[in-house]
C-alpha cells in the first residue's frame, strides 16, 4: 500500500464555530508513521468496501458526549451517501479518555467482534449512552447489550472477564497520542496522498467538504 504523502493545502468550509481542520505537516517521520496500513491495522473491522478510495478513521470513547452526538446526528448520512455507495470506508479506533469504564466498553466491543458482531455491539453502546463517568458502563450493562445483539454469553463473558483485549485498547490509545490525537471524537480522513484531521463533532458540511477535497 502506498505511503501517504502529507500535503499542506488550504481548506475553506465557511465560517463554522469550533471547527478544527488540520492537514498533517510533511516530514519524513510522519510519512513513515502515518501509512494507510498503520492507520487501519488493529482497529475495528472495516465498515464499507475495503477498496473504497477514502478512509475515515474515527478515534472515539464510548462515554464521550460529542462522540455520541456524532453517531446520532452525522454518521447515518455519511453511511448512506458515502459508505454504502463505495466512496468511503470507516474504521473506529479507541481513545478511552474517560477512565476504566471506557476501556472496559472498548474491550467488550472487541469481544463481540470475536463473534463477528463488532458493529452491532458498537452501535448498541452508543444507543444506550448515559453520559460521561455516570456509571452506566458496568459489567451487568455490557452483558445486557451482548444479549440484545444475540451474542453467545458464555463466550462473551469469558472474553471480557479475562481482559483479552485490554492490551489492544491501551495500545490503540498510545498510538493515538503518538499521531497527535488529544480529544474525542477526532477523525483522520485520508486517501493514498493526503491526510486531513477533523477535531471534534463538526457539522456534516465539514465532513462532506473534506471528502470532496480528497
UniProtKB/TrEMBL annotation:
Presence of keyword Disulfide bond: yes
Family: Belongs to the thioredoxin family. DsbA subfamily.
PROSITE patterns (alphabetical): THIOREDOXIN_2
Source taxon at top rank: Archaea
Cited InterPro entries: Thioredoxin-like_fold, Thioredoxin-like_sf, Thioredoxin_domain
Lineage of the organism: Archaea, Nitrososphaerota, Nitrososphaeria, Nitrosopumilales, Nitrosopumilaceae
Name of the featured protein: DSBA-like thioredoxin domain protein
Residue ranges of the TM segments: 6-24
Thioredoxin domain span: 22-214
Pfam families: Thioredoxin_4
Keyword terms, alphabetized: Disulfide bond, Membrane, Oxidoreductase, Redox-active center, Signal, Transmembrane, Transmembrane helix
One function term, GO molecular function aspect: oxidoreductase activity
The organism of origin for this protein: Candidatus Nitrosopumilus salarius BD31
Amino acid at each position: 500500500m502506498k505511503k501517504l504523502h502529507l500535503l499542506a493545502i488550504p481548506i475553506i468550509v465557511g465560517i463554522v464555530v469550533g471547527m478544527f481542520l488540520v492537514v498533517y505537516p510533511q516530514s519524513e517521520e510522519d510519512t513513515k508513521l502515518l501509512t494507510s496500513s498503520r492507520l487501519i491495522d488493529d482497529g475495528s473491522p472495516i465498515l464499507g468496501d475495503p477498496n473504497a478510495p477514502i478512509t475515515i478513521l474515527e478515534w472515539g470513547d464510548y462515554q464521550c458526549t460529542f462522540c455520541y452526538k456524532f453517531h446520532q446526528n452525522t454518521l447515518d448520512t455519511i453511511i448512506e451517501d458515502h459508505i454504502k455507495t463505495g466512496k468511503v470506508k470507516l474504521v473506529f479506533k479507541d481513545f478511552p479518555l474517560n477512565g476504566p469504564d471506557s476501556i472496559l466498553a472498548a474491550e467488550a466491543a472487541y469481544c463481540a467482534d470475536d463473534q463477528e458482531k463488532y458493529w452491532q455491539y458498537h452501535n448498541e453502546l452508543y444507543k444506550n449512552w448515559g453520559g460521561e463517568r455516570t456509571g452506566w458502563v458496568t459489567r451487568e450493562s455490557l452483558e445486557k447489550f451482548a444479549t440484545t445483539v444475540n451474542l453467545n454469553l458464555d463466550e462473551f463473558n469469558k472474553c471480557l472477564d479475562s481482559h483479552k483485549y485490554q492490551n489492544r485498547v491501551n495500545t490503540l490509545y498510545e498510538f493515538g497520542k503518538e499521531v497527535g490525537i488529544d480529544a474525542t471524537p477526532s477523525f483522520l480522513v485520508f486517501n493514498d496522498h493526503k491526510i486531513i484531521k477533523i477535531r471534534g463533532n463538526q457539522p456534516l458540511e465539514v465532513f462532506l467538504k473534506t471528502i470532496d477535497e480528497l
